[in-house]
Amino acid sequence: MIGKGCDVTRDFRLRMLVRGTGPKVTLLLMKIPSSLALLATFIVTIAPCRADKDVAVGQLPRPVLKAVEARYPSGHILKAEWDSEGYYEIKVQDGQTRHLLDVRPKGKIFKDELD
After folding, report:
1. CA distances (Å), 40 to each of 24, 49, 52, 83, 110, in order?
2. pTM check: above 0.85
3. 3-class SS at 17?
């Protein structure tokens, strides 16, 4: 099948790859530059959505601090971040163990795992 923009050797290689598989195989060909442009657009669009913002411990809401203190009375906060999904990620050290807490702004701890 020779047409506008088709490379004969590429078309031959593609036919060799699907030989014997029957009519169920459909190949969607994309040119490499357009594929890379689509991938770059996707990455640029998605990257800012997952950006976390560091928060100083003094700027944490009071309910968040109270919830962390209630869970780990002898622990201290090592790092706090605001996640774009609407919660704080707080790293706490309690003795020899470190915990990663996910806390809602109103003070509800919904995830507590060892770090």
Report:
1. 31, 15, 21, 24, 34
2. no
3. helix
What tens digit of pLDDT does each residue of 36-85 get? 676 677 666 655 555 578 999 999 999 999 999 999 999 999 999 999 89
Per-residue exposure over 2-26, b if at least 16 CB sit within 10 Å of its own CB, e if not: eeeeeeeeeeeeeeeeeeeeeeeee
Does residue 27 register a pLDDT over 90? no
Query: What's the rounded Cα separation, in Å, for the pair 93 and 25?
Result: 55
In the chain, what is the straight-line distance between the N-terminal and C-terminal CA atoms, in Å? Answer: 58
What residue type is 48 in one-letter code? P
How many C-beta atoms surround the C-beta of residue 41 within 10 A? 10
C-alpha dist (Å) from residue 37 to 28, 46, 48: 17, 14, 18
